[in-house]
Amino acid sequence: MNVVERVTAMLRIRRFEEQCIRLSKEGQFPGHYHVYIGQEPTAVAVCAALAAEDFVYSTWRNHGHLLARGAAADRMMAEILGKAGGYCGGRSGTLHLCVRELGIPATSALVGGSLPMATGGALACKRRGSGITAAFFGDAALEEGAAYEAMIIAAVWKLPILLVCENNSIPPQQRKRGQYTSSTLPAARLVDVPRSLQLPSEVVDGADADALSECFDRLTGEIRSGGGPRFVEVRCTRWPGNFPLWPDLPGGEWRLAWAFDQQAEHAELAAWLQESDPILLYLRKLAAAGTLDRAQAEAIDARVRAEMSAAVQFALDSPQPAPGDAFHHVWAQGGAAQ
Amino acid sequence: MKITFAEGLAKAIHESLAADPRVVMIGSGFMGLNMEARQMLNPALSEFAERIMVTPVSELALAGAGIGAASCGQRPIVDLSTGSFLFQAFAQVANEAANIHYMSGGQTSVPVTFYCLGGIRGAGAAQHSGRTQAMLGQVPGLQILTPGGADDAYGLLKWALLESQNPSVFISHSLLFAETAQIEPGAPMLALGKARIRREGRDVSIIASSITVPRAMAAARTLQREHGISAEVVDLRTIVPLDRETVLQSVARTGRAVIADECHRSYGVAAEIAATLAEDGLEFLKARVRRVTVPDVPIPFSPVMEAELTVTAEKIAAAALQTLGR
């Protein structure tokens, strides 16, 4: 994945999530939802290291994972709006979005719920003799018994599985006090939990796109060559818009100019942008190295914004499902029917 | 050929492993504590050892592993061992397996089988006697297979492993292991979702499933021998799908219904059948419907107290006599 592709992939997620927040505030879809702003390079780095035959398991915070895997923004947005044109015909909404043809067979909205299923995906890879499975989950998943059991199975069966724990639980100033790295799990370090089960585990900075790429390229290579499971804690710094119960856009729409010559007025956001926004940090690094200049970055952003505007329009134009569609897809063909 | 229920299970497992390389076994304790029945599985376990996963005591994630493997192209069977242990796996079975095909808008099928050795079996007490078919019947998307004979133990398990496209919960019962039936090798299975008339009769229909099938048959023989009453026995075979039509047709012929079921009385399988008769079969009924079920109390350890709660042939026969005013 080259620099332009990586920046494009990250901006697709950022701009998609902004549209979600806007559509929710407009009342275009009911219910709660979760956005991936601030964690973009993790999904991008993991998915860049995956092959088409691999499987991906995600959570209720799945938009970034699916986009990075190559899902179509328009069909995702239509699903989030509950429309007939969505990937799941309006049955999933934001919480359980999945795309079977991209190797994302099922997404659980239960904390820790995807982890056991991901071990099954990895078992399928092992049985057919190729491919690996990546499982994304948050730090809270480690508070569920399901995660502990799944890690036991991954270790005992030596499964080709990449466990990606995105720890976005706590601001860095609290971490520095030497407290738990998660808000509520009484482990001094999250990786102590998988390490106690003999799972090779490491920590990576979720704001460092290059470090993430290096980490996941290396670990997926080790898994592919029969090394067994790997666990990674990605330390993300939660984006201020994720602190309220409902996602918000503090400081309004994100501006590329913040990477270069402007400052956000919102104080909390400004601090996050300066220290922790992985996209801005990456763009600044690329500009300083002369790899990607501001004009090139703006051109990418313009293309991405156009894609997301079209996706929103597709979703708004997509018809509502027929009420009677509620009765379809309870049973797979060839099975029971009532 | 004549086979026992346990032989039917072992035969289905062996033939399925041989027929389809996607069949993978997550756990292998299908026969519970019955050492004789365990021997029957040995040929399959040694011949297909690479497809028998050795399992930690992690029912929740093992169920999930089966679901995930099924979603990714395998055909796993997860041995949940004692039926009550389904509760350890409930979140994955009820909230993941059952929902995936629907939530994905039909993108993903989940042909996984969860095997439960359920039922009131003697000395199981409250935590090892679970019959979960009725509560699982409240979960759309799960097929619930409740064989009451050796023929269906073989046929339904093989169907689940080789042909089903949906998640199945297979409710086995250790007190059925010695039941025998004739099977014709290679003959097609009675279609899924069809009840089996185990015995034809004119005076009363006894509707049963799982362990209550042989008990209903015993009750029917007693009724014939001692009272000259001709009882029909309808074996539901599967709780989901439920063959309401065959039940209604039987009651249309006999005019009387006794429903024998090992679930607790309230909100149980028998309650669903009774509701069906009330809604769609009232005109056929010459007498009130009778349910013979387990009272709404936990199962006690004491054999004496356990027997008090158990659905027996005697209780079924007594209920049939009641419908005939005797």
Description:
The complex is a heterodimer of chains A (338) and B (326). Chain A is of the alpha/beta class and 338 residues long. Chain A has one domain: Thiamin diphosphate (ThDP)-binding fold, Pyr/PP domains (Rossmann fold), CATH 3.40.50.970. Chain A has a five-stranded parallel β-sheet, sandwiched between helices. In chain A, helix 6 links the parallel strand 2 and strand 3. Chain A is globular, with a radius of gyration of 20 Å. With 326 residues, chain B is of the alpha/beta class. Chain B folds into two domains: 181 residues, Rossmann fold (3-Layer(aba) Sandwich); 128 residues, 3-Layer(aba) Sandwich (Rossmann fold). Helix content of chain B is 40%, strand content 20%. Chain B is built from eleven helices and 14 strands. In chain B, helix 7 links the parallel strand 10 and strand 11. The longest helix of chain B is centred in the last third of the chain and has 16 residues. Chain B is globular. The chains are: A alpha/beta (338), B alpha/beta (326). At the A-B interface, helix 5 and helix 6 of A face helix 3 and helix 4 of B.
Strand line-up of the largest beta sheet of chain B = 3-2-4-5-7-6-12
pLDDT averaged over residues of chain A = 93
CATH topology of the largest domain in chain B: Rossmann fold
| Rg of Cα set of chain B | 19 Å
Instruction: Please identify which CATH superfamily of chain A we are dealing with.
Output: Thiamin diphosphate (ThDP)-binding fold, Pyr/PP domains
Largest sheet of chain A, if any? Answer: 5 strands, parallel
Number of strands of chain B: 14
Multimeric state of these chains?
A: heterodimer
Mean pLDDT of chain B: 97
User: Beta-sheet strand percentage of chain A?
Assistant: 5-15%
Give the gist of this structure.
The complex is a heterodimer of chains A (338) and B (326). Helix content of chain A is 43%, strand content 8%.
Secondary-structure blueprint:
The complex is a heterodimer of chains A (338) and B (326).
Chain A: H1 3-25, H2 40-48, E1 55-57, H3 63-69, H4 73-80, H5 114-128, E2 133-138, H6 145-156, E3 161-167, H7 172-175, H8 192-196, E4 201-205, H9 209-227, E5 230-235, H10 267-275, H11 278-289, H12 294-317
Parallel strand pairs in A: 1-2, 2-3, 3-5, 4-5
Helix pairs in contact in A: 1-2, 1-3, 1-12, 2-3, 2-9, 4-12, 5-6
Chain B: E1 2-4, H1 5-19, E2 23-26, H2 35-47, E3 52-53, H3 59-71, E4 75-82, H4 90-103, E5 113-118, H5 133-136, E6 143-145, H6 150-162, E7 168-173, E8 180-182, E9 196-199, E10 204-208, H7 212-227, E11 231-235, E12 238-240, H8 244-254, E13 257-264, H9 269-280, E14 290-294, H10 303-309, H11 313-323
Parallel strand pairs in B: 2-3, 2-4, 4-5, 5-7, 6-7, 10-11, 10-13, 13-14
Antiparallel strand pairs in B: 1-8, 6-12, 9-11
Helix pairs in contact in B: 1-2, 1-6, 3-4, 7-11, 8-9
